[in-house]
Amino acid sequence: MAENVYKPPTGKELAEVKTKLINLTQAELEQIQNADSYLVYTALLTQTGTNAPAATVLKNTLGVNITPERGGTGVYRLVRSSGEWDQLKTSLQIGTSFAFDGDTGQASIYHMNGQPTKIVIATAEFATDGTVSFIDNSLIKTLVEIRVYP
What is the dihedral of CA 107, 104, 50, 118, to 10 degrees? Predict the structure, then answer.
């Protein structure tokens, strides 16, 4: 049972660890800092009028820039600066709310539509009569997180 007893590291062992930490390369440091099991882009999106959404980027470990674009009323795209989304390894979480006032409700939806560099987000109003209208001005500091898994 003595095998399971904790033994504090010796001075020599601590010195070896310290030397290894001091001599890490920049790439090794970045690998430690980004040790999540996925790469991530996290931003707050705000869209007004006929403008493209503005992004306040909170974290981006993807290694590419993401540019929000407006495709039309209530339709927006998150576009990679290079490379393609792997649709089998990419997920998007969007902070959304569903508000219903008796006659209409609003929600945000998204999909990856086969455009390898773009993720599409849409904001829409749903009426009780079944009609759906795409609308602007619904993204207000809306949290968006794209995860790319290995």
Answer: 30
Burial 19-51 (b: 16+ CB within 10 A, else e): eeeeeeeeeeeeeeeeeeeebebbbbbbbeeee
**Main-chain phi, psi angles of 121, to 5 degrees:** -120, 140
Half-sphere exposure in the Cβ direction for 4 (13 Å, CA): 1
Could you tell me how many residues make up the chain?
150
Contacts of residue 143, Cβ cutoff 8 Å, sequence gap at least 6: 42, 43, 44, 93, 94, 95
81-120 pLDDT, tens digit each: 999 988 888 888 888 655 555 555 566 666 666 678 888 8
